[in-house]
Amino acid sequence: MAKAPKSRYKRQMTGYERKKELIAYSFIAPNFIGFAVFTLLPVLFSIFLSFVKWKGGAFNTMEWVGLGNYAEIFKTAKVAEKGIGYLFNKVDLGIALKNTLFFTVVTVPLTLVCAVALALALNRAVKGAVGFRTVFFFPYVASMVAICVCWRFMMMKDGPINQMLMALGSSYNKSWTADSTMAIWSIILVSVWRNMGYYMVIYLAALQGIPTDLYEAATVDGANKWQQFCHVTLPQLRPTTFFASTMLIISCFKIYDVVAIMTEGGPGRSTKMLVTYIYDEAFSNFNYGVASAIAMVLLVIVLIFTLAQFSMEDRYANN
Amino acid sequence: MTQMTASKPVGVQTPPIMIVLKILLYVVLIALALFTLIPFVWMLSSSLKLDREVFSYPIRWIPETFHWENYRLIWTKVPLLTYFKNTAIIAILVTFIQTLTSSFAAYAFAKLQFRGRNVLFVCYVATIAVPWQTYMLPQFILMRSMGLYDTLWAIVVLQSFSAFGVFLMRQFYQGIPTELCEAARIDGLSEYGIWARIMLPLSRAAIATLVIFTFVGTWNDYMGPMIYLTRDVNKTVQVGLRRFIQENSSDYHLIMAVSVCSLLPVSIVFLALQKYFIQGIATTGLKG
Question: Under an 8 A CB cutoff, do A135 and B277 touch?
Answer without folding.
Answer: no
